[in-house]
Amino acid sequence: MNRKKNHTTYAPAADAEIAIQISNLDVSFGDNHVLRHFSFELPAGKSYAVLGKSGSGKSVLIKCIIGLIKPNAGTIQIFGTNITDLNSVELDKMRMETGFLFQSNALYDSMTVRENLEFPLRRHGIQKTAAEVDELVREALVNVGLPGTDNMMPAELSGGMKKRIALARTLILKPKIILYDEPTTGLDPITGREIGHLMVDIQKKYHTSSLVISHDLNCIHIAADRIVMLIDGTCYAIGTYDELKKSTDLKIKSFFD
Amino acid sequence: MLPAGLVRFLTEIAEVTRFTTKFFREILRPRFEFAEFLRQCFFIGYKSLGLVAITAFIMGLVITIQSRPTLVEFGAEAWLPKMVSVSLVREIAPVITALICAGKIGSGIGAELGSMKVTEQIDAMEVSGTNPYKYLVVTRVMATILMIPILAVLADAVSLYGAYLGSNIRGVVSWDLYWNQVFATLTYSDIMPSILKTFFFGFAIGIIGCYQGFNSKKGTEGVGRSANAAVVISSLLVFIIDLIAVQITDLAGLT
Ligand SMILES: Nc1ncnc2c1ncn2[C@@H]1O[C@H](COP(=O)(O)OP(=O)(O)OP(=O)(O)O)[C@@H](O)[C@H]1O
Ligand SMILES: [Mg+2]
User: Fold this and answer.
1) Does chain B have fewer CB atoms within 10 Å around its N or its C terminus?
2) Tens digits of per-residue pLDDT, B49-101?
3) How far is the CA of A51 from the centre of ligand 2 (A)?
4) Which CATH number fits domain A1-91+216-257: 3.40.50.300, 3.40.120.10, 3.30.420.40, 3.30.160.100?
5) CB B120 to CB A102 under 8 A?
């Protein structure tokens, strides 16, 4: 077999108006067709939410964007570069600019909060002096409202705190895009709302574009400019919270009742 | 049509094989995670030291006590150190060490990587510029390959000491005489094959623990099952490797 070597490099266009552009994305696991011809675009500086039932493929969608799952077909462009056929070195470059907040936080149990935050910095081979690293860690912790938690272990943190620390860990690289995988599930409504407001603050402070996966309407209402309805593996509808709430389509309505 | 159980078994074998060949591919590529490797050596070696030593000591003692009556019956009591040291060094110490490590280290790796898998920590590493296979699997497997032989040699020594005490419970063997006898008995062909096979024990324990962890199913139940499967499969593999090793040394005339 003649394997095609690809030389695509990750070269984000500085003035790109579209942060993420997905076209005709197909993902299936065996007979389970999770996404079919899914397309949408996220303008730079905006915050969109993806709303869908549990198991509809929301996590699969953003894991494709970060390159953890390879789609069967279709393209994903981040600031104008198609990332579906980048090699691992180029993929790492893209991942330095794209933060990912995992559904289950994914804090490293065996490391302190500080080591967790330093991990992406060290592993991406970013050259920083000890003082600069200190400053970045402090800044990230302050921005999520948890200064001084450096030496705590993940097991000592509450659910809301874990979420904030996980967010701090994605912020430490100063990403241009942040992907949130269900940032409020498992939290009480009050903490959920706090996280929602935090996401808005972060967006303003770091000038990011963000994509929020959620089925928490409160959080989406607070943090997202527009909502993408992921139904039956496709982008079923797209609109603001108020537009979709008024919709008479039964499939859309069922989410807002 | 093949029965579903057989198909599942064969698929599993294929998956393990693929996981294992990946080990040899990844270990050749640059960037060896040396710091993490040392950390794992410490955990794997140091943390099992006490358990291995105690078990080896007891085995040495017990085997000696159990063997004495038979030898006395044949009037061959003086052969006790000879006989016991051969069985301890050739078989009992390495296999006991491997089984203890399969239980302690295999389950530890299975549970640790399993919970990292289900809480997406492995994915998080991948998006943080780290190859999780290199960082987690290669380091752990290298550590078990290195540490289990060291633990086995330690077990040899401690079990021989246990045997010394055991032979002095009813008889009298002086310290010097005992060790003279032991070293006169043990030859290269007793020691080398038995140490060599522990490298394979170490490899099996490490790779099975990692494989089970990496393929953990969602939920705490999945993690428990991975840890359990790691112990069961690696213990079984230890015996299978032992069986193969015996055949090879036998064929090579090293008996
Ligand atoms: N690695 C994988 N291998 C096989 N199937 C997968 C894999 N990842 C996801 N799936 C399947 O894809 C479908 C969508 O899963 P996904 O995790 O994206 O759901 P979700 O929309 O995020 O749900 P939730 O709201 O519960 O998180 C599920 O049917 C799941 O079984
Ligand atoms: Mg999900």
Assistant:
1) N
2) 999 999 999 999 999 999 999 998 988 888 889 999 999 999 999 999 999 99
3) 11
4) 3.40.50.300
5) yes
